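#dry-run=false #mode=assembly
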Amino acid sequence: MIRAIPTALRFTLLDFLLRPWGHWTIRVPILVLATLGILDRRALAAPALWLALAILTGIRIALDWPLPDNHAYLLGYWCLAVFLGLRSVEPAAIVARSARLLVGLVFALAVLWKVLSPEYFDGRFFRVTLLTDPRFEQTTRLVGGLSSEDLVYDREVLFAPLPEGAELADPRFLVEPTAFRVLAASATWGLFLLELAVALAFLVPKLGISRHWILIGFCILIYAVAPVAGFGWALLAMGLAQTDERDRGLRWAYVVAFLFVLAYGEISVAAIGLRLLPG
Amino acid sequence: MNRRSQAAAALPGALLVLVAAVQIALVHLTPLSPWKGGGFGMFASLDGGSFRSVRAFVEAEGRWEEIEPDPGLGKTLARAELVPSDRLTSRLARHIAREERELGLPVDAVRIQVWRIEFAPKSLAPTRRLLRERTVAVPPDP
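#status=ok
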């Protein structure tokens, strides 16, 4: 039987183990604590373990600032939430409420940043990212219809900037097929609307949106394309922590989503698609 | 849930909002990349590490020469790229001066430039913009 809080905590510890980071003086104690928590039920439920993980994560963020990814911050807040929950008289309720707030706020901030960024809604962000970020190369080729040669050419153009105000007498134009433009526009609006839906579902429960299925769908869909597994696992751990003990199907769905995100880190869905395509 | 439990449940979220508010302010007041600093600004802006670069110049015997920063400078280099503040660019300059001296090369000053590539809205034509320039005089060897 999958139990909500213990499994959510193990998801979190797996996140630490599968995506270790930081200087060895921080990384080694984190790996030891995470392993202890996975192996021993009492350690898993010990507030001290989660306080130690929160402090170590915080120290790492401070020492390496501003280099750590947002994932590290999220794990730090989540470990603090688990610590505060476990040392209270109603751990499940507190952990669940903290998780709900954290997921909602993360997505609200992601939405806010898109609104604040002048490069997002005019399509520049995804047009440039899909052409230059190697993590999206297979997707750009599969869905956007660009060849490897097109991508090499486009990257040459994009990484050869002119001084401000200068113009080439004979400008070079990017290769951007219609399918690529559609992909970039779909990514721009699709990601924004999905993130907005998750933020609303978690922060405004009165709307009655099924927050769990939106979060699971987000993780299964988005992390197939954007392989940032560590972030996905943290979100799924926080989602699972909010499930009702009676809702077995939902808890299994979280486990399956966790496994999907795990698999995405090892295999590229778009690369498989490219191999299956004729020619 | 009593008030104490409610406060405990809200504390991590409050901390997240506080850090994010500081990050948003820093991005607007300094050249901090929106991707970094705990504000969850990922996948929104092109102002990330991929489109920033550092150029370093060394002055010796009255001549400036551009040098390739040693990849071994790792975090010092990446920090100066992501937050080109006076403090972090000066630190990078001092590191470079020390390395040059260790190689037995003369150094009178080090200049650090942090550049960003920007893209035109429709054509995506790239242009480079100087985010920060800092020159640090290096005291002569004792």
